[in-house]
Amino acid sequence: MEAQNSENRFLRFGSFELDLRSRDLRNGSTRMRLQEQPFEILRLMLERAGDVVTREELRQHLWPNGTFVDFEHSLNAAIKRLRATLGDDADEPKFVETVPRRGYRFIARTTESDASGSQARGAPAPRVRLAVLPFSNLSDDSSQEYFSDGLTEELIAQLGPLCRGQVGIIARWSSMFFKGTLQRAREVGEALRADYLLEGSTRREGSRVRITVRLIETASEAHLWSETYDRNISDWLSVQADVAGRVARSLLRELVPDVRRVAAPEERPAYQAYLKGQYHWAKPGDEGLQAALECVSEAVRLAPDFAAAHGLLSRLRVASAEYYHDLPRRALTVARETATRALEIDSTLSDAHAVLADVQRTLDGDWSGAEAGYAQALALNGSNEQALRALALMLALQGRDSEALACAERARDLDPLCLSVGTALTWTRYIVGDYDGAILDCRHLLEVDPERLSARRVLAAALLQAGRPTEAAAELETALVQADQHPVVLSWLAHLRAVTGDCAAATTLLARARALESSRYVPPFHLALAYTGLGRIDDAFAALDQAWFDRDPSLAGVDADPRFKPLKGDARYAEVLARLNIPGCRAGLAL
Predict the structure, then answer these.
(1) Which 3 state secondary structure label does DSSP give 547?
(2) What are the start-end ranges of the H helices in 433-570?
(3) How many other CB atoms are there within 10 angstroms of residue 404's CB atom?
(4) CA-to-CA distance for 552 and 233, rounded, in angstroms?
(5) Tell me, what DSSP letter sits at residue 466?
(6) Does the pTM exceed 0.90?
(7) Considering only CA atoms, which of 571, 553, 572, 568 is closest in space to residue 397?
(8) Which of the four pLDDT bands, split at 50, 70 and 90, describes residue 258?
């Protein structure tokens, strides 16, 4: 019993609290994710605060005899991850001090209490988590798949604002992973860390649609309630609002007494076009971006007051800038206009607020306004993982490492199986200098999807900074096979070949990238990277000037990316940073 009680404690330092029973680390109300080894290192140091915990003690505790690992590398990586989570600096530590050739010492003041003491101070209770699984299409016509997928998307979108602060809604990418699954509710719940599942089916026949919905508790696999809706297709949106409200009330036990109905167009064709746009946008990467733009633009044309369609269209315009489907400045300008129109119709659209924040940061250089915009988006929908991803990268750009990692981890917690969310976390780790963590996360992503080009790019960048250029080159060569005419990959590989001494190959790769300018937009920021590797400094600054004029979203990464270090001694570099107007003078990489 004494051993059990010893673990029922809370250790506090600074603004942090470590719960030894649940193994949770919190910074205020924010839960910080710690992997097993960093957690154990922190626990040992907190329990012996002020004393040196030797490297040999850590080895015996974490890697006992018979465990075959590269101890020095593994321990250094774990300490780096711990410091990144705490926002600590090895040179000027607030918490973890390195004692040369001996070990580590925890130097901050600590306090301790048992569970009852923490509860008296109102420690936050864990939130309920709900996953909306993809609805099955039972119609004979397989082309109606977008209706069932659309219902899934809309329920996720509506439940986020309805349940904010009380229920965490698992984001769409992770939910869609279980489309057509035969796994049991308990297994799905464990995979998504979800307390409840909402599942169902749709059957459309002519102008009629039947929707069946079930709410399931994952632990017991008990069906808490089920409903069937038989409606005319023109009443589709009111059915969604009705279902969303019923789920919210069931979970919150009447804490949401007034369920808002989402403003919707009367025109059935507009809503069908909107659903098709969502369907295409749910495809990996930018595969469905152009088709999604066409569908959602048609929805807006048919129904000019359709707020949700304007909101989605603004998000697609930002994606056009990030994936270089359009000149970024032009795409971002249109995104601002479209998001503003969406909020004129419905000021509570979380995604539209997040888009305006994207535009303020990238187009205007208004970082404080952007941060306020992301905060507003999350206040309206705490499950908006896109806003969390963008905020995480923005915070990392400013050197606010612990806050950035907390946001990125929270986004992954909401969408644990989404590869885009996982990639955002790897970029965040790269920006804060946790190259080993970025490498590990990228390897995991590529095990799931070897075609994930953005993960392979950040893996190559992290490997280069970790002193493993041969492995980095192999990753970029693989990426080039997967995307032969990709100007970013060509530019990155040109940089790597140049800095490893093969300038002839680098020049050829750069020429291949420039040759694409006649048929598509080639982002000058990435060309600047290749010029930097080749030592063509004037060309590099000319490309950075063009990137600023184009408002390339990646330009904010110039100061955070060590590959641009050769430019920092030039007087023109300060001018580049002054234009970006980044608080803290650290930038990051766009996805």
Answers:
(1) helix
(2) 435-448, 453-465, 469-482, 487-499, 503-515, 524-534, 537-550
(3) 26
(4) 43
(5) T
(6) no
(7) 553
(8) very low
